[in-house]
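Course assignment 3, question 2. Fill in each field.
Student: A.L.
Task: Predict the tertiary structure for the chain below.
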Amino acid sequence: MSQLTDSDPTAAPSDGAPVPRVTTRVGAFLVGMVTAGLGLGVCTVSVLLLWIAAPAPAGGPAGALHVAADVWLLAHGADLVRSAGPGTTAVPVGLTPLLLVAVPVWLLYRCAQHALSGAAEGPAARQARSTGPRAAAPGAVLGRFLGGYLLVAAVAVAYAATGPLRVDPFSALLFVPLTAVGTVAVVAARTIGLRAALPASGRLRRLRSALPPALRAAFARPLRAAALRAASAAGAVLLATGALLLLTGAVWHAGAVRHGLLQLAPDWPGRGTVVLICLLLLPNAAVWGAAYALGPGFTLGAGSVVGPLGATAHPAGLPPFPLLGAVPQEGAGSPLTWAVVAGPVVAGAVAARYAARPARAAVAGVRQAARHSGDGPAGKRRARAATARLLRWNRRATATVAASAALWCGAGAAVLSGAAGGALGTAALRHLGPSWWLTGAAAAGWTAAVAVPGALLLREWYLWRGLGRSPLAGFRAHRAGRAQRRKARAARRERSAAASRAAAQERAVTRAERRARRSDGTRSADRARAPEGPGGPGRD
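Answer field:
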């Protein structure tokens, strides 16, 4: 396993020359199958250990293997269905522990890096090797890797589609490929770039060129990288806020948490299993806490809402789960619950700081270039390059980065909220957790409201402290030049009006000359058509 998950792109043989680990399509296909087998093996070992530790295990080892396949598919986002007997109603289980998702995602990430190690090398390095298998294209390597992984997943779906606890085949066919393709796309973007792995078609390039310039600039590499860093920092603050709220609620309602644990599992092996499930669900609870801090809150089923403005009545039939004991009780909000909005505000401030960081680096570059400006032509070139970089990170670029970070943060919050919730039953327990679109919209709104003006203010602060450009002096100069700008606008309007009058007069003269020429031509034609009289031609 350590050989497959090694992150180094090349391996050094005895002669010291680097060679690729995986260069062929067949090798990538086998790596994909081994990756899926590793994930199944981890889930199988965990389930078998719990089955052995149970005082009265239900079923035999075959049932434990079936549960392991179910758990592995649940880690990819697939829904499970539980039925107590042949005539009972099937109960859906769609709440996926996010910490369990980390197992297949981490394996996919590391093994996809290993599969791309040979394809990621440059063409010169591949041509220099005259022995060994021929290196495949990155797109072909990724396709074969996904093919091997999804083949094992299809076998697992066919094996786990029956039994008292079975997987929903339709959700498995949707979410397992989605998880695998998304993780491999992230690996390709970070390793060799999506354009190298999947070249853009001509239609996509034409569509990209048809976008407005401002939108194309927002998706440029420097602005996109800065926006992603700012969005990641803001998302981390939101998740930390949710985790802090979870810890506070667990300490505040410690009695209810302990009562739920003792009621759900009276013996020590059962309590250990419940504690393990709680640990797997901690990231889900942190996302629920982040949704609570953002304002929309979350639901416990049957239309109930738990938010900072208040909590409605909890539906009947909730299991006595320890994490549910940390949920606020029914009642209206208070200033203590309203204070949770400090978390989104801090997240927006962190996003603003990261959005203004390129401008701060540009200001530092200008100051450093000014110190060495007397070093001849090289110093002058360095100063011009630093000034050009500062001009690129102007107010518009800074505001664009902050706004893009807000959109990325909202998209991430929506994805996590949709993955953190799910169903634990029918009727009242059909959906538990936050609303993905409300949480995403709230995250984007809070981040944009704080990050955009905060980033602009930080940029002006860096300019003032680094280069002495006070924004107040600029505002005074703007007001002082208002009269001159007004006169200039009046002069431009007068010149435009004069030009319009001259053009109108010229058009009138042209029309008059055209009418005169037509009338002269008409009279000449009439004289030519007149009959000859006794006094001579053309005489009346």
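Instructor remarks: The first helix runs from residue 25 to 53. The mean pLDDT is 83.
Grade: pending
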